[in-house]
Amino acid sequence: MILVMPEGDDSYYVNSATQPRDRFEDYIVNDLIGDVESKFPVLSSRSSRAIAGISMGGFGAVTLALGHPDLFFFAAAISPALDVPSRPFSIKRISQWEHYRSIFGPWGSQARQSRDPFLVVRGVDPAKVPYLYLTCGDKEGLLPANRRFAALLEGLHYRYEFHVVPGGHDWSQWNQRLPMLLQKLSEYVMAR
After folding, report:
1. Residue ranges per domain, the chain?
2. CA-CA distance, 182 to 179, in Å (whole number)?
3. Which of 10, 23, 57, 185 has the fewest CB atoms within 10 Å of its CB?
4. Does CATH number 3.40.50.1820 belong to domain 24-191?
């Protein structure tokens, strides 16, 4: 197994709606996968690829799995910030909101909607999407959004599991989740 942890800056691993040079989704699905498969002795098929991430990376893992279901058989997200594209304007977080606008596009735009996992998940065939493994800490502000997303997955009959675990949005909680994630990935590989 080869683990690759690409830098995503503050991109949420999507192609920016306003910055033509910020093409992080293209980087992952076109460049990174091809680069790994050309330089390492790995199988080059969907059945041998998984994607995972934490927080912003968890958002990226979920949206890349939904947007490119032909690339991965398993996707995991620890504390994913799934609600970022739908967060309303707040004067307290104006600089963050402006940054999100540059990534996801203007509020209500097609660009923003196409990057919102709560909307994207409704237009994808659940039978084609990778198995989704999601966790979120019981003291995280992201927990309500993650619960809503899990309920949506349930209602749409996706193959997934969601765990509420002890902890906050920090490395103490995440470090405890990584062995569970790798164990689940191993179990899922063996069961196939």
Report:
1. 24-191
2. 5
3. 10
4. yes
Strand partners, 161: 133
The pTM for the full model equals 0.93
DSSP, collapsed to helix, strand or coil, labels residue 145 as helix
Let me know: does 28 contact 9? Beta carbons within 8 Å. no
Residue ranges in the chain modelled with pLDDT below 50? none
List for the chain the helix, strand, coil content (%; round to 5): 50, 15, 40
User: How many residues does this entry show for the chain?
Assistant: 192
pLDDT in tens, 59-76: 999 999 999 999 999 999
- Do residues 102 and 121 lie in contact, with contact meaning Cβ atoms separated by under 8 Å? no
What pLDDT sits at residue 120?
Answer: 97
Distance CA 171, CA 181 (A): 15
> Are β-strands 160-165 and 131-137 bridged in parallel, bridged antiparallel, or unpaired?
parallel
